[in-house]
Amino acid sequence: MLRIGLTGGIAAGKSTVAAMLRERGAVVIDHDEIAREVVAPGTLGLDRVVERFGEGVLAPDGSLDRAALGHIVFNDLQARADLGALLHPEIARVSAEREAMAVAADGDALVVHDIPLLVETGQAEAHHIVVVVHAPADLRIRRLVEERGSSLPDARRRIAAQATDEERAAAADVLIDGAGSVDDLRAQVDELWARLQAELAEERG
């Protein structure tokens, strides 16, 4: 088994890289998806979030109002830290369970942990290889505004709330440039996939 940590700044192209790796046969564990699951209605995670941040983070149907919570945590360092302390242990537990299932099914699995805040949460050392997808901040801001409907101030806040490009690069074993075309990205993923296959063969001995 080879454990890969995949991360990158918001709107850098990380999700596209994850999808390409999945197409090639990797098991992708999406930590954002798990983060949504652990605060679904009826979960202890949602109860804890409401206890810390108040009823204002709930939508009328009782689900988590992500926009309301996001507005709080993107503007308050302590609130962001509190949210992480509430949810990261549960996310880690679920992701470990999914990795164990993947390895039980295939001892030679390439398991990609897609973790937006891998660097911020100090998880780089837990992976055999860390892959960072990067793109210039101005391009990521444009993508957030034009493709995801963010306002310009919100896009800037979201980028400022994450690790810097330099911090992510320092943790990277592999850097992928997400600023170009999909074909450019695909070519880089092909190179990465060849490296991962070689690393896996070496792990097998």
UniProtKB/TrEMBL annotation:
Metal-binding found in the keyword field: no
The cross-references to PROSITE patterns, in alphabetical order and at most eight, read: DPCK
What are the subcellular locations of this protein?
A: Cytoplasm
In terms of SUPFAM superfamilies, this protein maps to: P-loop containing nucleoside triphosphate hydrolases
Q: Which domain of life is it from?
A: Bacteria
Q: What are the GO MF terms of this UniProt record?
A: ATP binding; dephospho-CoA kinase activity
- Swiss-Prot/TrEMBL keywords: ATP-binding, Coenzyme A biosynthesis, Cytoplasm, Kinase, Nucleotide-binding, Transferase
Which pathway does the protein contribute to?
Answer: Cofactor biosynthesis; coenzyme A biosynthesis; CoA from (R)-pantothenate: step 5/5
Q: Name one GO cellular component term.
A: cytoplasm
EC numbers = 2.7.1.24
User: Major place of localization?
Assistant: cytoplasm
UniProt xrefs under CDD domains: DPCK
Biological process (GO) annotations held by this record are:
coenzyme A biosynthetic process
The similarity comment for this entry is: Belongs to the CoaE family.
Write down the NCBIfam families for this protein, in alphabetical order: dephospho-CoA kinase, PRK03333.1
Its job:
Catalyzes the phosphorylation of the 3'-hydroxyl group of dephosphocoenzyme A to form coenzyme A.
Q: This protein is called what?
A: Dephospho-CoA kinase
